[in-house]
What does this fold into?
Amino acid sequence: MTKPHAESCERNSAPILQVLQQHLGQAHHVLEIGSGTGQHAVHFSAAMPWLRWQASDHRDHLPGIGQWLDEAGLPNTPPALELQAVAGGGLQPLPALPVHEGVAGFDAVFTANTLHIMGWEQVQAVFAGLPRLMAPDALFIAYGPFNYNGAFTSDSNRNFDGWLKARDPRSGIRDFEAVDALARAQQLALCEDVAMPANNRCLVWRRMRSASQPG
It folds into this structure.
């Protein structure tokens, strides 16, 4: 099996890492949703050895991710887990939650270039599933293109959206306002919206202190 490779991961890893390092200095356990090739998992865990980076994706992608993790041989990257956004069902199967100082849950959940690939029902499922995975005060960080006030931020994003919809009518660049509404419904408050290269954004939400973790 040829090890998977994505040029986009090579291009965007450095700018994403800059954002992650600003927010994950005190993190211990991070869950990545939709790890794809596994390149991000290797790059970020190597640069942030103090945290344990848990990759996850559809079962079909796990062997490829495993190739990247095995080749890197890093001590803070456990085997990738199967995890899927299921319409009406949140994130399944629910992974075992890490525990640090008696507190269960991941300190941060990260996803890159996924929300515009999946259907809107799956986007809703991602946010609906987050509370069961996140520790108090945990972060959710999402990277990718977003529209604002119902408008594309660039011609390239407009063209990309057309390409996405031609490939799968359920996909497409999401409106920031609609995504933020999903986050707020799960007691996640936006704390940063960072402009990134190639007309992308890095959105950072924090779980509100009043939010209680479902059993």
About this structure: The longest strand covers residues 134-144. Helices lie at 7-23, 39-47, 62-72, 120-129, 155-167, 176-185. The chain is about 35% helix and 30% strand.
